[in-house]
Amino acid sequence: MLARPSTLSLLRVRELFDAIDKSGGIARRWWLERNLTFAANTTALDRWLTVFLTKGYLKQITIKDGSNDVVAYQKTELGEVFHRTVKDYEHVKILNDVIQHFSKDRLTR
Fold first, then answer.
1. C-alpha to C-alpha distance for 32 and 85, rounded to whole angstroms
2. Of the residues 7, 15, 54, 88, which has the maximum number of CB atoms within 10 A of its CB?
3. What are the structural domains of the chain?
4. How far apart are CA 36 and CA 19, in angstroms?
5. What is the pLDDT of residues 35-93, one digit of tens each?
């Protein structure tokens, strides 16, 4: 049976991916810190980024800004798929309900 994720978490996931899209597909870390509502501090942002990097949804890159190297993030192909899924969350909820229904039906037989 699929676990139903919290709506707040899904909104944060979508906010992160949308922010990367709005910044042209590559978002600098400082830009994310200033533009994500859930990244009230660097620890919160670090937790989210660590999970997304570990799961393969994002990749960390280094870009040049004049003479400085700047940390930035970009969605991976898997991240693109996950972003589309989160955008279409209503269908995910319906699918989850159908799977739960059939699982319960099978258990009662």
1. 22
2. 15
3. 7-108 (1.10.10.10)
4. 8
5. 888 777 788 889 999 999 999 999 999 998 888 999 999 999 999 999 988 888 766 67
